[in-house]
Amino acid sequence: MNNGDIVGKIHDSMYSQLQKDGVASPVQVLMDLGVLSAGDYESWRFGRVDYLERVCRVNLHKLTFIMKEIRAYARKNNLKASWTFYKQWGRKGKKLLAKLRFSKSGDENIEKMYATHYISPKRISECQRNGANACDITTLPDTQTE
Fold it and tell me: Do the domain assignments include residue 146?
């Protein structure tokens, strides 16, 4: 897949997510592109994979390009960046939360890029009309971080 094709697919994924839920996430873009399978995503969420990049089906250079294009789309469309805590699934009753890792390096800036969701201005307006608690990103469909 060449970069031109990837850009179009990234834009389609972001647009589709924003139309459906008012929020777009890099992880969902990776799944929409076929870079990350639903099964591999689930394995990562349950802690069976040590970091997300390990199961992505492209090299780090291509992942970096995808992440930059996601941020460029967000800037161009005036989307609000919202950091999301990704915790491991299947830890009910355990006292310590297990924060999931996205990158091999664990670099804070890289981790933040993967964990940042983008909210549409329309969704933000709806949240503001409905009160402060309505803007909690974890209440949006398909963006649960638990």
Answer: no
| Number of structural domains the chain divides into | 1
26-33 and 108-115 helices cross at what angle (nearest 10)? 70
Within a domain: 144: no
pLDDT average, residue stretch 87-96? 76
Task: Give, in order, the Cα–Cα distances in Å from 79 to each of 25, 38, 42, 50.
Answer: 11, 26, 27, 30
pLDDT digits (tens, 9 = 90+) for 17-45: 999 999 999 999 999 999 999 999 999 99
Assess if residue 82 is contained within a domain: yes
Domain range holding 42?
3-139
Note whether 118 and 82 are within 8 A (CB): yes
Q: What is the pTM of this model?
A: 0.85
Q: What percent of the chain has pLDDT over 70?
A: 86
Q: Is residue 118 a part of any domain in this protein?
A: yes
Sign of the alpha-carbon dihedral angle for 58, 61, 64, 66: negative
Residue 80 pLDDT grade (very low, low, confident, very high; cuts 50, 70, 90): very high
Distances (CA, A) of 130 to 13, 18, 120, 125: 27, 19, 16, 9
- Distance (Å, rounded) from C-alpha 40 to C-alpha 1? 20
